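To start, an entry.
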Amino acid sequence: MKRRKQSKIIIEEDDSSLTDESEGSFHSGGSTTDEHREYDEHELKVEADQDDISSFGKSDEEDEENIEDGDQQKWKDYYLSPPKNDRHYFMSQFYKYLLHAEGGAHSEHQTTLYTRQVHIIADALDAEGTDLSSLTDNDGLNIWDNFCVPRLRDKILTGNTLKVYLRSLEYFVKFIKKGLLYDRALAGSVEKGLVELERSPPRLSEYDS
């Protein structure tokens, strides 16, 4: 059977999560500008010959091509190790959730891909942060202003790859909404902020559509 051409998903690796110290942090640049809207309208278009990313019809083989065996084991060990802080804790529980039937019973390759992408977003928004607040700061606008736009502008990631990052973040929001497999007392006010990303601007489903 002839296979359809699939876009290559790139993992923007950052080993700072494995160290105790990280350099620099990102701060909100304010509201979305005309330049940002231009990227929104044009850069996130999906080419006709590519799979609809919303269906997430990616194979384990494609995941393997983008996460080297050594990195796969490294991050698996990291997410299954005793957490160093709240951010590490929630990423670890998200990893376990994705493997669980409640989270879709994803393969280890897919689970690592989705968890890494959410972790990379959180670290990029606040490299020295130890919780999830960077995902909800500025009503979530920083996700677009400080993570997506710079990577589109500097051609670090393609529009289609960023759509996958945002879809991984949607999985994480669903994990938080369900309130399963994690200590809700640790989520605090951030839990409400993450859930609001689905209902109020900026809605993640609009960013990745």
Confidence is low (pLDDT under 50) at residues 1-9, 19-33, 35-65.
